[in-house]
């Protein structure tokens, strides 16, 4: 019998959420005109006035930047037909 990695409810003493499954949070990801990427800050920050902004849900900073880059590629592909 194969044991399931997921149970319906945590048992007393279990760590929740399970290790290896980090909970996601919202990240503000900005792409500056020179092509560099950064995270953090408020979307209405004046430093981001000339930037492309993405609000991304991801478990960590690196994943947020990768997802924002993928989203930008998809948008560019759609715009170019």
Can you tell me about this structure?
With 81 residues, this protein is an alpha+beta fold. It has a domain at 25-80. It has 1 helix and 3 strands; from the N terminus they run βββα. The chain has one helix spanning 61-80; strands at residues 25-31, 37-39, 52-58. Strands 2-1-3 form a 3-stranded antiparallel β-sheet, with helices on one face. A hairpin with a 5-residue loop joins strand 1 (25-31) and strand 2.
Largest sheet: 3 strands, antiparallel
Uncertain segments are: none
**Rg from C-alpha positions?**
18 Å
Q: Quote the distance from N terminus to C terminus.
A: 50 Å
Kindly report the average pLDDT value: 84
Summarize it.
This protein has 81 residues and is an alpha+beta fold.
Record the SSE blueprint.
Blueprint: E1 25-31, E2 37-39, E3 52-58, H1 61-80
Antiparallel strand pairs: 1-2, 1-3
């Amino acid at each position: 019998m194969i044991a399931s990695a997921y149970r319906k409810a945590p048992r007393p003493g279990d760590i929740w959420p399970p290790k290896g499954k980090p909970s996601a949070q919202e990240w503000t990801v900005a792409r500056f005109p020179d092509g560099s990427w950064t995270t953090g800050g408020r979307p209405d920050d004046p430093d981001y006035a000339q930037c492309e902004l993405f609000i991304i849900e991801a478990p960590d900073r690196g994943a947020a930047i990768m997802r924002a880059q993928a989203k930008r590629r998809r948008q560019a592909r759609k715009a170019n037909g």
